[in-house]
């Protein structure tokens, strides 16, 4: 629930950005120079991967 709440807050913040904000330069510790748009896309992909992992794990759990 906490993760979902923080992501909703982030999406609300991002929704208020102007087009030029998305092109703002950023620096990722591993990937180096990037833009806000690329960082957000990376986060979304990363989150989706973890959600898939959780769903796969939950599908293998049997009720006791």
Overall description:
The protein has 64 residues and is α+β, with helices and mostly antiparallel strands. The chain has 3 helices and 2 strands. The chain has helices spanning 2-15, 19-22, 36-60, and strands at residues 25-28, 32-35. It has a two-stranded antiparallel ribbon. A hairpin with a 3-residue loop joins strand 1 (25-28) and strand 2. The protein is elongated. The two termini are 24 Å apart. The model has no long low-confidence stretch (mean pLDDT 91).
Summary?
The protein has helices at about 1-15, 20, 35-60, and strands spanning about 25-30, 30-35. It is α+β, with helices and mostly antiparallel strands.
Provide the fold topology:
Layout: H1 2-15, H2 19-22, E1 25-28, E2 32-35, H3 36-60
Antiparallel strand pairs: 1-2
Low-confidence stretches: none
How many beta-strand segments?
2
Mean pLDDT: 91
Rounded to the nearest angstrom, the radius of gyration is 16 Å
Largest beta sheet, briefly?
2 strands, antiparallel
Percent of residues in beta strands: 5-15%
> What class do helices, strands and sheet pairing give?
alpha+beta
């Amino acid at each position: 629930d906490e993760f979902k709440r923080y992501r909703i807050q982030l999406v609300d913040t991002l929704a208020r950005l102007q087009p030029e904000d998305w092109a703002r330069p950023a620096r990722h510790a591993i990937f180096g120079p990037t833009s806000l748009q690329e960082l957000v896309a990376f986060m979304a992909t990363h989150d989706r991967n973890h959600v898939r992992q959780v769903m796969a794990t939950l599908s293998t759990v049997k009720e006791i």
